[in-house]
Amino acid sequence: MVDSFKHKGLRQKLVENLILKGIKNEAVLEAIRKVPRHWFMDSSFLDHAYQDKAFPIAANQTISQPYTVAYQTELLEVEANHKVLEIGTGSGYQTAVLCLLEAEVYSIERQLELFKKTSLFLPKIGYVAKRLIFGDGYKGLKADAPFDRILVTAGAPFVPKPLLAQLKVGGRLVIPVGDKEQVMSVFVRTSQKSFKKQEFGNFKFVPMLGDKS
Ligand code: SAH
């Protein structure tokens, strides 16, 4: 796996572009500056890796656009040692960004092909999640709940109740909600029984799909 000066230079340009687009969180920008995004894509896509675009990965899925990864991660307000649940491991790129923020990362993927590929690949390149799970993100991860942060990286037609239930008080859920287009939404658990909802811009994600089993 090569990460050359050229790649690093392209990443620096990408980060400058993200700053122009409004990303401010220095730790998030630093993580994007560090993770070799081209490793998470097929080699034929090398030239595309540092454009601010989503790209196809296996199983009809995509690696999210860098801006989207940065924006969601910024909204998540991750701190070191936070227990973070990610729904939609996909290529593992977002997982790697969360690992660099020193979160304890749990990530669920429902496509077996992607789950197998990414769970071998991530530790090999030095990003060690606490747990990578093959399963249905609609259910969350009860066994390891509650979480400080939950991040959904696929378009959710509605907000799954288990995800709200598995948030700590004070915790945040970042989730794009909608069918064809999604509204980036943040739920903050303000007490055992109450949540505060905030809405941000519109995004386009691949759909969050039901359990295959
Ligand atoms: N974070 C990923 C984004 C991948 S796209 C990355 O950086 O590459 C969204 C991912 O969510 C896809 O891999 C898709 O298979 C997965 N997904 C869709 N529905 C899901 C569900 N119900 N549970 C878990 N993962 C799901």
Word description of this protein:
It is built from 6 helices and 9 strands. The strands form 2 sheets. The protein has a 7-stranded mixed sheet with strand order 5-4-3-6-7-8-9. It has a two-stranded antiparallel sheet with strand order 1-2. It is of the alpha/beta class and 213 residues long. It has helices spanning 5-20, 26-34, 66-76, 93-100, 112-124, 161-165, and strands at residues 55-56, 62-63, 83-87, 104-109, 131-134, 147-152, 167-177, 182-189, 195-203. It has a single domain (5-203), classed as Rossmann fold, CATH 3.40.50. Bound molecules: S-adenosyl-L-homocysteine.
Summarize the structure.
The protein is an alpha/beta fold and 213 residues long.
Count of extended strands: 9
Bound molecules: S-adenosyl-L-homocysteine
CATH class (first level) name: Alpha Beta
Rounded Rg: 16 Å
Q: How confident is the prediction overall: mean pLDDT?
A: 95
Taken from the alpha-carbon principal axes, the silhouette is globular
Task: Name the helix and strand elements from N-terminus to C-terminus, one letter apiece.
Answer: HHEEHEHEHEEHEEE
Number of helices: 6
In the residues, how many domains can be counted? 1
Q: Which second-level CATH architecture applies? A: 3-Layer(aba) Sandwich
Beta-strand percentage range = 15-25%
pLDDT < 50 stretches? none
The CATH superfamily is identified as: Vaccinia Virus protein VP39
Q: What's the arrangement of strands in the largest beta sheet?
A: 5-4-3-6-7-8-9
Characterize the largest beta sheet: strand count, sense, and whether it forms a barrel: 7 strands, mixed
Q: Which structural class do the helices and strands define?
A: alpha/beta
- For the record, give the distance between the C-alpha atoms at the N and C termini, rounded to a whole number: 35 Å
Q: What percent of residues adopt helix (DSSP H or I)?
A: 25-40%
Which fold name corresponds to the CATH topology? Rossmann fold
